[in-house]
Amino acid sequence: MATERLNSILSHLTPTKSGLAAITQKNPDDVVITLAIRTPLAKGFKGGFKDTQLDYLIYSLLKKVIQKSNIDPQMVEDICLGNVNDAKAAYTIRAAALAAGFPNTAAASCVNRFCSSGLKATQDIANQISLGNIECGVAIGAEMMSAAADRIPQPFHEEILKNQEAADCMQPMGQTSENVGKDFDISREAQDRFAAESYQRAERAQKAGWFDDEIVPITTTVKDPKSGEEKKVTLTKDEGPRWGTTYESLSKIRPAFPDYGERSTGGNSSQVTDGAAAVLLMKRSTALKMNQPILAKYVGATVTGLAPRIMGIGPSLAIPKLLGKYNLALDDIDIIELNEAFASMAVYCVNTLGIDASKMNVRGGAIALGHPLGATGTRQICTGLSECRRQKKKILLTSMCIGTGQGMAGLFVNEVL
User: Fold this and answer.
1) How far apart are CA 417 and CA 409, in angstroms?
2) Is 371 labeled as catalytic in the residue annotation?
3) pTM listed for this prediction
4) Which of 115, 349, 382, 388 is an active site residue?
5) What are phi and psi of 105, to 5 degrees?
6) Could you confirm whether 169 is annotated as catalytic?
7) How far apart are CA 140 and CA 377, in angstroms?
8) pLDDT digits (tens, 9 = 90+) for 64-101
9) Is 401 a catalytic residue?
């Protein structure tokens, strides 16, 4: 501890490091991740979580956080939930946390920045730790897409709709995907080939057991739709990957949004999914004092905005912005988790940024695994850090597009080599 404190003081006296040297430096005040776990991802409306309520899923995962970390729950000062569709999410996270075993001194809140909500929750907790407001907190993302839709029920006020970009915020996500495909000439073939690779990578990862150290089993109840009979089941693996998926099989699927175009399909778009993921964060000095294993260092995250009608290309703007803040190049990144909301935006981002495909979504992405909106930002952290450990790589970058025209990106340093 004394050595780390001395190194921290000396780092302020010596010339500032930049780039990789700066972000890989270890200081007592660093924000670190000591646990990153997630539920299996289940198919929306027909999968293992179709009859599970959001509160129970969050409660179950928070119980696993306490069990897996062996942390004294009294040490946790705040819990932040990323969720998009549940209007009662602020009530839900507080009640679920109390029932899971956290004391009433552990506060709770929820955030909603659409598909980046899980990363936003992580940033919220990390920023509080960094500023000294709290020592330890939990970020969790969770979504039950079986329970709700994310469409706006009625138009905005007529004064707002006079602004075209404001009106564009109401475009369905499928329409924005077709806009990207048409505006930037991302062909149906390119999208189907990308999707096939996502499925094949997820299949390979699942067969090899690569997901095992990030997934915790969840026991819940499923109701038979015909008989109404309820039975207990324990979910242990993702339901989204369809083994044997090929470009040829995907190319036969009909367009999903024919009113807007013919390039996006149910096969090359993210799946409707239920699931949750959580990360435990604290100061490095706190982790050492509590004998918590340090998995990774949280470096930072940033967000940007863009035209709502092409919201999918958000990562192509957020990633360079984040890298610029830390004087990094894309070549400095070892593993990239880029959310595959649609193949159209994923292909665009890969081509525009020049991403090395072998580094990105090594275990497949949302097309194969699913995209539970509020959970994706934390799910990417769990999956990305697990892949970093497997490959013994250091630098992880996560990113996603965001409805209404935004993009977000996060940066992490794996410390389990």
Assistant:
1) 23
2) yes
3) 0.95
4) 115
5) -80, -15
6) no
7) 9
8) 999 999 999 999 999 999 999 999 999 999 999 999 99
9) yes
